[in-house]
Amino acid sequence: MLDRFPPQEGVLAPGDVFQASASAERITKIIIFLAFSLIVSSALISGSFERAHYWYNLNFVTRFLSLPLLAYSVLIMIHLPYRAILCFLYKPYPLSAELPSVSVVIPAFNEGAMVEKAIESSALSDYPQEKLEILCVDDGSIDDTWEFIERAAARHPGLVQTFRHGRNRGKRHALATGFNHARGEILVTMDSDSVIARDGLRHLVSPFADPRVGATTAKVRVFNKHQNFLTRMLAVRYIMAFEFFRASTSVFRTVMCCSGVLSAYRHSVVARFQERWLGQEFLGQVCTYGDDRALTNFVLREGYDTVYQRTAEVQTLAPATLTKLARMLTRWHKSFIRESFIFSTFMLTRYRDRHRAPAVFDFLLTVVLIPFQFYITLYSLYHIFVDPILILRFLALIVIMGAIYMMFYIRFEKNTDFLYGVLYSFLHVFFLMWTVPYAVITFRNNSWLTR
Question: Which residue among 23, 56, 175, 375 has the highest number of C-beta atoms inside a 10 angstrom radius?
Fold first, then answer.
């Protein structure tokens, strides 16, 4: 798919992104596969699974406390087939013959050279130039971001408009500045650290041929995939986030978060709630993070559908360190908590004519699974403390569950990178899942965290 993107030369060169040799990559994957095989076989040979059965059924109390494990197993047996069926039913929208006018809004803050890549990739799009405008808003950057914006704009006079805030006001205000100056029927929001495929805009706006569609979101790939182990894992995680979760919810036209990396909205619909979205408050505080999830919620509440368009592709920079990833996830969790509560306040109303019931079912299933994951992890860790050999069972289950989910990745991508996805499962259990309770504890801290 890389040939769909502008040539990676000059301004679009990946820079210091590390490219590993094919042989080194192959050896690394073999080592990972052997390690996973060793974990599972050790758990089976050691009798770790039988030991767990003994401890969980030792007496009435342990049997009672292990009931959530059974409940979780039932939920997973519902969740996986349900999600799989929806994934198979998903179909992207065909290219539309009639293309609307489009305004691409790119907010930027201390982005440096990547913003030039974002603007350039949009300008090199195969979208009809007479129907396209690009608006880039520098939200009070204190580095050289403005210089890169101006340099990109100079290469495309008449196509790229630039705006500059005197001080940092937040991403919502930067987007609003672009929205207020946009003339297009469709507003496209694009992160300043992203690169869009040449045909990305055509595919992204095609679903709007259906008047019930209010927002669409694109398929996101990782631009710096080969930088290190973490970015390799995130490359798999991003694909699953879109091809497994967003694709499935798109079947009943309720994508809960149209990603800020690249999404599109009907201008006429956004105009109805823009001021409310811009000044959104929750628990007495002005909302800063989660602008994309909030936009999606507003579109749904207006009675429109939100869909995923697989054929529209974009590449974006993923966090290359655990610290940056943890901060990003914390911010995402906070917006998930807030917008989930807001969605729950209207999901049982007649906010639209169709697809309300499956949206409620999917929402409840997603939310209910979260506390079970924490309970089971803590319950397992307690028994590992009592009987250390149980750690082999615990690690083996992480491999097995990760491998089951990666079967979907193999179907989507058909490559061996799924091994990094299983590896991500360990990262999630031992480090990343704990960003959820941290997000709850620090919920009232509405700083951006990654800035």
Answer: 175
Residue 11, pLDDT above cutoff 70: no
Instruction: Answer for the pair 317, 194: CB distance below 8 angstroms, yes or no.
Output: yes
Closest CA relative to residue 264, chosen from 382, 380, 101? 101
pLDDT tens profile 186-227: 999 999 999 999 999 999 999 999 999 999 999 999 999 999
Confidence label for 163 from pLDDT (cuts 50, 70 and 90): very high
Neighbour tally for 13: CB within 10 Å: 12
Q: Which amino acid is at 158?
A: G
Q: Which domains does the chain have, with CATH numbers?
A: 1-451 (3.90.550.10)
Identify any residues that bridge with 156 across adjacent strands, giving them in sequence order: none
Q: Helix %, strand %, coil % for the chain, to 5?
A: 60, 15, 30
3-class secondary structure, 160: strand
Q: Please check whether residue 439 is in contact with residue 334, taking contact to mean a CB–CB distance below 8 angstroms.
A: yes
The DSSP bridge partners found for residue 188 are 104, 264
- Nearest CA to 158 among 128, 192, 132? 132
Nearest to 80 by CA among 436, 368, 367, 365: 365
- Other Cβ atoms closer than 10 A to 303: 13
Q: Which residues pair with 102 in a beta bridge?
A: 132, 186
- Strand-pairing partners, residue 217, are 263, 308
What is the 8-class DSSP label of residue 246?
I
Is the Cβ–Cβ distance between 253 and 307 less than 8 Å? yes
User: CB neighbours of 28 closer than 8 A, spacing ≥ 6?
Assistant: 20
Mean pLDDT, residues 261-274 taken together: 98
Distance between CA atoms of 296 and 170, rounded to whole angstroms? 18
